[in-house]
């Protein structure tokens, strides 16, 4: 059974003060087996982020289906499941990394990563160790660990975002340009973490403007212009 199967998905936005409804995307079709990584490519404004936000249900889809093979609930349609079920999936199974950091104020960098693990049921001791491992991997300066993220640079905020999402080892991880404001060394760290998650069985959907970064990493590529999915390589050990 596929981990993620997007069928004839579409999203529209209504501009109420103009009385207009604008179609953002339509007829989106792609699928992934467990442990596969698909990269979505296309020009700015083509709807790439809209797809990720709809899978995460920040946006409510208008048409089509987004089937996800949940560990807790079995096969579900993310376009139609209850809010309670979606909240559970966000907490335990589906991670999302955006270009922007939106966290509780006056919570330190270290505590944010610890909290991500605590809500998964980890003990304080394990959460502390794993949080520090994640922050070290993404080369967050230890001097920043007990600082508030509103003082961080764009690249530091993005690395913290990635640490918070990946430390939970999600079954499905959505990446919205996770290397947009990173230097080359930091991009390599992100790539290493993606490879590590893939080896553990995480399924990934990612948006990258840096095509070279995706080379050799993605199993499939979905082109927003042609509306076609291309198989780049077969994932070893996957089961259909």
Automatic annotation (TrEMBL):
Transmembrane segments: none annotated. Keywords: ATP-binding, Lyase, Nucleotide-binding. The keyword Nucleus does not apply. One of its GO terms (molecular function) is lyase activity. The keyword Lyase applies. Residues 1-234 form the ABC transporter domain. It holds the Pfam family ABC_tran. InterPro entries: AAA+_ATPase (IPR003593), ABC_transporter-like_ATP-bd (IPR003439), CP_lyase_PhnL (IPR012701), P-loop_NTPase (IPR027417). Belongs to the ABC transporter superfamily. PANTHER family: ALPHA-D-RIBOSE 1-METHYLPHOSPHONATE 5-TRIPHOSPHATE SYNTHASE SUBUNIT PHNL, LIPOPROTEIN-RELEASING SYSTEM ATP-BINDING PROTEIN LOLD. NCBIfam families: CP_lyasePhnL. This is Phosphonate C-P lyase system protein PhnL. It comes from Psychrobacillus mangrovi. The gene is phnL.
């Amino acid at each position: 059974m596929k981990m993620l199967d997007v069928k004839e998905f579409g999203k529209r936005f209504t501009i109420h003060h103009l009385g207009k409804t604008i179609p953002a995307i339509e007829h989106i079709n792609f699928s992934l087996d467990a442990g596969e990584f698909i990269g979505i490519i296309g020009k700015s404004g083509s709807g790439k982020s809209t797809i990720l936000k709809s899978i995460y249900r920040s946006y409510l889809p208008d048409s089509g289906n987004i089937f996800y093979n949940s560990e807790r609930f079995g096969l579900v349609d993310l376009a139609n499941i209850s809010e309670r079920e979606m909240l559970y999936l966000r907490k335990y199974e589906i991670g999302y990394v955006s270009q922007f950091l939106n966290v509780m104020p006056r919570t330190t960098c270290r505590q944010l990563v610890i909290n991500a693990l605590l809500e998964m049921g980890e003990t304080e001791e394990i959460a502390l160790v794993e949080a520090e491992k994640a922050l070290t991997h993404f080369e967050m300066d230890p001097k920043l660990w007990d600082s508030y993220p509103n003082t961080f640079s764009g690249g530091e905020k993005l690395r913290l975002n990635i640490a918070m999402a990946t430390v939970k080892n999600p079954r499905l991880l959505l990446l919205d340009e996770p290397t947009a404001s990173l230097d080359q060394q930091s991009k390599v760290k992100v790539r290493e973490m993606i490879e590590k998650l893939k080896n553990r069985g995480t399924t990934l959907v990612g948006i990258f403007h840096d095509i070279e970064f995706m080379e050799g990493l993605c199993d499939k590529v979905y082109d927003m212009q042609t509306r076609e999915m291309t198989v780049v390589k077969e994932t070893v050990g996957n089961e259909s």
